[in-house]
Structures are given as structure tokens and as C-alpha cells.
Amino acid sequence: MTFLKYGIDLIGKGWQSVAAGLPKPWLACNRRVEEGGKAKGTEDKRIKELDRAVELGAQMVDVELGTPGAAEVVKDFKARAEVIVSYHNLDETPPVDRLRQIIINQLAAGADICKVVTTAHGFKDNLEILELIRLFPDIRIIAFAMGAPGRSRG
Predict the structure, then answer these.
(1) pLDDT, tens digit, for every residue of 54-113?
(2) 115: confidence class by pLDDT, cuts 50, 70, 90
(3) Which contacts (CB < 8 Å, 24+ apart) does range 65-73 have?
(4) What is the pLDDT of residue 122?
(5) What is the mean pLDDT of residues 130-151?
(6) Out of 38, 75, 115, 121, which one is annotated catalytic?
(7) pTM to 2 decimals?
């Protein structure tokens, strides 16, 4: 099934009227600034907007692993939607041992799907990210590296 990703933080004010016209299924995210998003206001407000998105028909939400009380937030959403627990690193690709621990932490938080997005500075960074899929063959994982070295050349 293909989901339309909808960034509440990128749309800004009036996102609710846009959401009302979205085809189903759709995924709501409201990314924190430190994770590359533009969400403003308190954490409570950011999560309430994701909650409103589910009320408006989002079948999936993306909650950052760094969200305060992430496990409780995920638990609250899971009764009504699938939950991606995501990690974004805009500076680097951590070593595979750290990436592995991130996936473990996402699963402990209750992730239906784990998402790891890093920044590649060399080809090796892509291999580190892809290693996650081998390490967790039975887990639904979205994993990729951003930046020029993270792009395919084929």
C-alpha cells in the first residue's frame, strides 16, 4: 500500500483544510526543527496536531524517537493508527552499532515501522544504513542516507 506523506510542519497554518481533501491512505508527520522539520510551538502542541491529523483520517503517523515520552506518545497513537518511529541525523551517519541501538530503541518505543535517515559523507555511510536491513530482516525499516554520497548513480 502506498501512503501519501503529509508534512503538517511544512504546510503550516491551514493544514487541516488541506488534509480534509487528501486521498486515503495518508501519513502525517510534524517534524521538529532539530530533525529537519519546521514545527513551531511546544511539544504538546506538535503532538496535538498529529492527533488532530488522525482524527482527520491519517492512517499512519511519524513520531521522532527523540520526542519526550516517545513510548507513551506512540502507545496513545497505536490504538488508532500505525506508527513510524523515526530518527534523523542531519550531520552524519553514525557507526552501525549505534544505528542498531537506534532500531532497538525504536522497537522498545513501540514502532510499527522504524525509520532511520542520516547524512552520508562517503559511500561507506550507505553500507552502514543498508546493514540495518540485514540485521533486522523481520522488521519493517525505512533507511537511507541523504546528501550527494547517499544518491544513487545508476
Answers:
(1) 998 899 999 999 999 999 999 999 999 999 999 999 999 999 999 999 999 999 999 999
(2) very high
(3) 65/102, 65/105, 65/106, 65/109, 66/32, 66/34, 66/35, 67/32, 67/43, 68/43, 70/109, 71/108, 71/109, 71/110, 73/47
(4) 92
(5) 90
(6) 115
(7) 0.89
CA–CA gap between residue 8 and residue 12 (Å, rounded) = 6
Joined together, the cell numbers standing for residue 67 give 520526542
Question: What strand order describes the sheet that includes 113-119?
Answer: 4-7, 26-29, 60-64, 82-88, 113-119, 141-146
- As a whole number of angstroms, the distance between CA 10 and CA 88 comes to 16
Considering 24, 45, 88, 124, which one is annotated as catalytic? 88
| Amino acid at residue number 30 | N
CB atoms within 10 A of CB 34: 11
Q: Is residue 48 annotated as a catalytic residue, yes or no?
A: no
- For residue 8, the surrounding DSSP H or E stretch is helix 8-11
Annotation says 75 is catalytic: no
CB 49 within 8 A of CB 29: no
Residue 59 grid coordinates: 492512517
Q: Which residue has the higher pLDDT, 148 or 73?
A: 73
Positive or negative torsion for Cα 138, 140, 146, 152? positive
